[in-house]
Amino acid sequence: MTQLSPDQVAGNWGAIASDYERAFENLSAQYAAHALRLLALRAGDRVLDVAAGTGTFSLQAARAGAEVLATDFAPGMVARLRERIAAEGLGGISAEVMDGQALALPDASFDVAASVLGLIFFPDLERGLGELRRVLRAGGRAAVVCWRDPASLPLMTLVRQAIQRVAPEFQPPSAPPVWARLAGAEVLKIRMEAAGFRRVEVVTSTAIQRIDAPEAYWAGFTRSAPPLAYLFSQLGPERTAAVGREYIEALRAQSKDGVPTLTVEACLGIGHA
């Protein structure tokens, strides 16, 4: 059996749900909004969100009047999303623990299905995409979001550069991260078509990340995803603190109007059943 990476273990995600939300939701919310526009969501559409995380796509769809089921394999993520649903008093939305590679849902039961930076972590990408296609009704629409170019992802590029300056002897994992297996427009289009989606179109989705409080951002960023938590545990507290100082300085060097600002590109694929 192939060993799972830290980001393929449900408990690892549940443990960092709030930190993930603070670090990445601003980005994923922008991609989710773009996806909903391209999906031409209608009030009353039955919507499935796979690997929903803390639920930005699901919440936006529910606010627009859709009937939403959000699923994630991490009970901690689902618990956090349920808290958010209750806090908003939203109707027409529920969240359930479910493996996106084997959805406990009938065929052809949703008008819209989506996965925003979630399916990219699945051990079996083909099964995940196949399940997304299986649950769509005839004429249904799906959206899948992945990173455009993992090698130039700004948030991670700054981490690598900071580590190199602080601890040049440190050897990060040599293998590409699992989420880089599904990246770039060509790969996304090919994989969606192989899963049975028709009329697949992939566009670049650009999000702007403004980091008003770099020190506070860094404090949570080190725990905001399982691979990051593992990486900084290997570095240890002293070197992590030093990397943080370099990272914050690099962020401030990219300020716009006095606020560190990053432009982060993803690929957004739209396919039809």
Automatic annotation (TrEMBL):
<feature type="domain" description="Methyltransferase">
    <location>
        <begin position="47"/>
        <end position="140"/>
    </location>
</feature>
<dbReference type="Pfam" id="PF13649">
    <property type="entry name" value="Methyltransf_25"/>
</dbReference>
<dbReference type="InterPro" id="IPR041698">
    <property type="entry name" value="Methyltransf_25"/>
</dbReference>
<protein>
    <recommendedName>
        <fullName>Methyltransferase domain-containing protein</fullName>
    </recommendedName>
</protein>
<dbReference type="InterPro" id="IPR029063">
    <property type="entry name" value="SAM-dependent_MTases_sf"/>
</dbReference>
